[in-house]
Amino acid sequence: MENFASLLHGFGVALTTYHVMLMMIGVLLGILVGVLPGLGAPNGVSLLLPLTFTMDPVAAIILLTSMYWGALFGGSTTSILFNIPGEPSSVATTFDGYPMARQGQATQALTLAFLSAGFGALVGVILITVLSTWVAKFALRFSSPEYFAVYFLAFASFIGLGTASPFKTIVSMGLGFAFAAVGMDTVSGGLRLTYGFNELLSGISFLIAVIGLFGIGELMLTMEEGLRFDGIRARVKIRDVFRTIATLPRYWVTLLRSAAIGCWMGITPGGPTAASFMSYGLAKRLSRRKEGFGRGEPEGVVAPETADHAAGSSAILPMLALGVPGSATAAVMMGGLMIWGLNPGPMLFVERPDFVWGLIASMYLGNIVAVLMVLATIPLFASILRIPFAIIGPVIVVVCFIGAYTVAGRPFDLWLALAFGVVGYLFKKLNYPIAPLVLAMVLGDKAEDAFRQSMIMSRGSLSIFWSNGLVTTLLLIGLALAFGPLLSSALGRLMKPKASSAVA
Amino acid sequence: MISRYTAEIGSATLTAGLGLAAVVGALEFGIGWGDAGPEPGAFPFYIGLLVVAASIGTLIQATVGRHGLQSVFLHKEEAKRVASFFLPMLAFVVVGRLLGLYVATALYLAFVMSVQGKYRLVISIASGIAAAVIFYFVLEVAFQVPLLKGPLEAALGLY
Amino acid sequence: MLKKTSWLLATTIAVTFGGVAQADWKPAKPVEFIVTSSPGGGTDNFARVVQSIIAKHKLMEQPIVVTNKGGGSGAEGFIYTKVAAGDSHKLTFGTNNAYLLPYVAKLAYKPDELTPVAAMALDEFLLWVKADAPYKDAKSYIEAVKAKPDTFKMGGSQSKDTDQTLTSLIQDATSAKFIYVPFQGGGAAGVQLAGGHIDSNTNNPNENAGQWKAGAITPLCVFSPTRLQGGVKVTATMGWSDIPTCKEAGIPIDQFQMPRTVWLPGGVPADAVAFYADLLKKVSETPEWKEYIERTSQTDRFLAGQDLKTFIASDDAKNRKVFEQEGWIAR
Questions:
Q1: pLDDT tens for residues C14-47?
Q2: Which CATH class is domain C126-249?
Q3: Would you say C21 and C278 are in contact if contact means Cβ atoms under 8 Å apart?
Q4: So what's the ipTM on this one?
Q5: What homologous superfamily is domain C2-123+259-326 in, according to CATH?
Q6: How far is the alpha carbon of C29 from chain B, nearest alpha carbon, in Å?
Q7: How many structural domains compose chain A?
């Protein structure tokens, strides 16, 4: 109850014309950086940071968080329209969003994505409002073994989904792990797999891989098929937006499950990317329309988007309460807090309630503002698809490479993006699944670090992974998810032979 | 014309090569299990081995199922289309490295629009330059993100 | 081209005439601040505070562009600086990692390929334990560790970096034995301590202040020759100045601090170095800088010129000794 009183006070702080205006500016800027691949939310927020030095902390954080929401929405837009994830966390949105757009349902896909994203974000904020104290305590129980178990769980829920050859799945995932291992190794403090090249010193950026594999690779495939984008000349009807809004309640199970996954991953640093993959994986497994996934199933858009935004907004909590950022963007904002003279930590809630609750209230408002604004941009974005391919194709190429360069300002990344583009093209043509590679690149080195930290703690004994209830439970769920399908299909085969031989 | 079989063999060899590179690279850092858990090279080493093994698996699969893979991977016509897209893109990267990304953007867009899109040359060139200028304002002026620049920007005094 | 020639000329003149540090050099285009950590890190905060102060007080006419090059623990940024030799519009922000990194990893730059400009602050290190741990002071904690060697976990940021160096120094000075667990950053090490997953850490004041205020962890001593400044109480009973120095508390380590340093590429005119040293000096005299120092409980110490060189040489020698002894030197 006390929290609600504080929240009301927070609304009082956040609801001024000046703040609402900041929200709108932030959201607009965010959409812009989100649409440009490579220039995602973390970059956008750190670029805006200097402007906030002279602002009041509440106004400053409202501007930055609004930009974050905008960037998350913008990232989904390009995933759906062009198969280019503007943000790492919107990779999973491409799986069904892009097929939907190609079938002329761009408006529906965008509407669903934005609405479910808005829903996810609201659940995240409600969680923060109601359970902030409890959640902060829960997050404290996580150490390296638990992190490893969480990463394992994220993997397990996604792996074994595809219909691709198991060899090809392993190759794809293995390459992802290998790419993730390049560069500085936290645990030993040494460089790995750089072969003496300075260019590899900072590792292979996951964003570059995504830009190449998805954006450029997809364009090459489109060109080869001779398919001009005009195949998807969708007429934009405002009515479609409202009609899609009406279908949303149909996905309530997916919405709730995905929001729960998202909140959990945002609080325990699995992050929005892991959340969206995991949510997509589970949605596919539990859906009655499994075959539809990957071919334009609306549920495949709803699931990752909800989880992504739920994770994005709930990641603010560990940042405020513990000083551990749950996502890359949260890390930048935390830097901002310190510059504005605020020390993140459990006492921030007590010392600066106006700031904390102003921020939380602004998260409600900011998300509503953001959803309304992006919904209004749908006709604009959907009509981009009607521009002739001879213009939009090359523009996408340019945007991809400029995006690749802006990730870190490294000329070498241009070559890397090109190489990943060729790999993406080949892999798609030869039915290598790309998602395992992406997931392995995101979580690979984190999982490895967590594993090795656990081993240092336990002096090389694996028993640390069943040393407490939390880690054991997480691992067991992970194992069940990883081997469940295998076992059930094996069991099925054991049961079946008689029946099938009878038929034969 | 490339057959599917050739493409399978080619890409599996490539992935096996990458896996091998990881194995060789990892050997330098120790691949054992020390008293503080696995050594730095252990993880990349076994991952590399796994990639090599799975690549060999794909190779065997492709060789065994060779008859099923006689379909055409890339027609001449398709190859032409891919090349007509890929080569300008390659040129874009090369020019971008040499002359900066803004110049490369203008040249690339103008070229593709006029040659492949059959737009009038004036329109193509104007669009190319316009796009470069827009990018300049969005990135350098609005967001202060420096992009790779070349001699032209230096001559114009833009940093 | 013309510009380059005139710079070269200026350099030659400056060198021939002994380059009396007259700051008549001025940046002619936007200055790039290269941050050798990822956004949100300690070095990132340092650079952005300097940027905000320069902007607020209009200390420089040209605008500033900040780029993060934190790959390879910051090596990416230093190599970028090395390659930019002769470019006086690139200012690189780091710590003592600028000259220590090349010892522990094979890297394509040498410290003498960078030009030191200034050190602006010294970040302090403290020994922290969980608040409900039964150790009232550093001495009793060390005794407990000694009684059960290789069971107490010391957390820190990264590997073969300042935290692990300090842990190694503590082990040498007291013959206690810890298990050192490297985390991604000081913040993570702080939360791991608050959650009771490790037994102690050697975080900077800033990284642990929040948890201390909340009563989850408590400092035992500070590795500084004198006590910290700041009389305001952080908790009900203690403020920063109430923390004993480690020497007082029975750990014979005089001093362990991390300088926040600023560098230029090699081969830049002496005038440019003087200009930036002067600029940063002005920054360090503003109230905003004092406030940053106080908030992060660092020690305010501005070093440039010969003082800086002397400081670097002695810090380098001290750390190198530890590296050699631990066998961390990469070949």
A1: 444 444 444 579 998 889 999 998 777 789 889 9
A2: alpha beta
A3: no
A4: 0.94
A5: Bordetella uptake gene, domain 1 (3.40.190.150)
A6: 7
A7: 1
